[in-house]
Amino acid sequence: MKKILIAFLLLISPVAMAVQPVEGINYSVIGVDSPGKEKIQVVEFFWYACPHCYAFEPAVKEWLKTKADDVEFVRYPATFNRPNVQMHAKTFFALEQMGKPELHDAIMSAMHDRKQRINTQDAMDQFLASHGVDLTAYHDMMDSFVVNLKMQEAVKLAKEYQIIGVPALIVDGQYKVEKAYSWAEKFQIADYLVARLRAERASAAK
């Protein structure tokens, strides 16, 4: 165990991580089974109408520029039991399936920069139509088997990962990032946990 700890600590930049994160303060152990994928997953839960999620976006983009090749970033929308939250979640999955990832930023910017209220299906339809989205295809995708399956998966994971607020970061189903003094520091904590898991995987493979 000592060798594992030394190995993963050596992988962390002393400049980026001045203080070692503390379990129970900076992160919590949730201990859900790992996704079992080749890459280590960092999962973000978000909601379009959440101002904190919008403030978190620049840190997400900066981290993605330097994300290690063995790390996979995945987004899941919040699925809290409110009509507007559910509509936003299904919209995220529908647009993802339609190959329109650029509209993620467009929706966030409209709601938070321009203060547009896109909290009903009619308002979302108007917004998407103004961005050239085929509304018939969009509604068909909203009601599709794949989007309903994605919604079930998002609900299941949110329960397993104990998501009670957003934005939230989960590292490989094992850890939840908790207290940080900045949005960027949340990713420093995530990187610390990724390094820990990477070292554990390397040790187990010997």
Keywords, please?
single chain; 206 residues; alpha+beta; five-stranded mixed β-sheet; 5 strands; 52% helix; 12% strand; disordered N terminus
Protein architecture, described:
The chain has 206 residues and is α+β, with helices and mostly antiparallel strands. It has helices spanning 2-10, 51-66, 83-97, 102-112, 121-130, 135-142, 145-160, 183-205, and strands spanning 27-29, 40-46, 71-77, 168-171, 175-177. A five-stranded mixed sheet has the order 1-5-4-2-3. Helix 1 (2-10) crosses helix 8 (183-205), helix 3 packs across helix 6 (135-142) and helix 3 (83-97) packs across helix 7 (145-160). The two termini are 14 Å apart.
Structural Rg: 18 Å
Terminus-to-terminus distance? 14 Å
Q: Uncertain segments of ≥5 residues (pLDDT<50)? A: 1-16
The strand order across the widest sheet is 1-5-4-2-3
Mean pLDDT score = 90
Give helix % range.
40-55%
| Total number of strands | 5
Q: How much of the sequence is in beta strands?
A: 5-15%
Assembly classification:
single chain
What would a concise description of this structure say?
This protein has 8 helices and 5 strands. The chain has 206 residues and is α+β, with helices and mostly antiparallel strands.
Draw up the topology in text.
Blueprint: H1 2-10, E1 27-29, E2 40-46, H2 51-66, E3 71-77, H3 83-97, H4 102-112, H5 121-130, H6 135-142, H7 145-160, E4 168-171, E5 175-177, H8 183-205
Parallel strand pairs: 2-3
Antiparallel strand pairs: 1-5, 2-4, 4-5
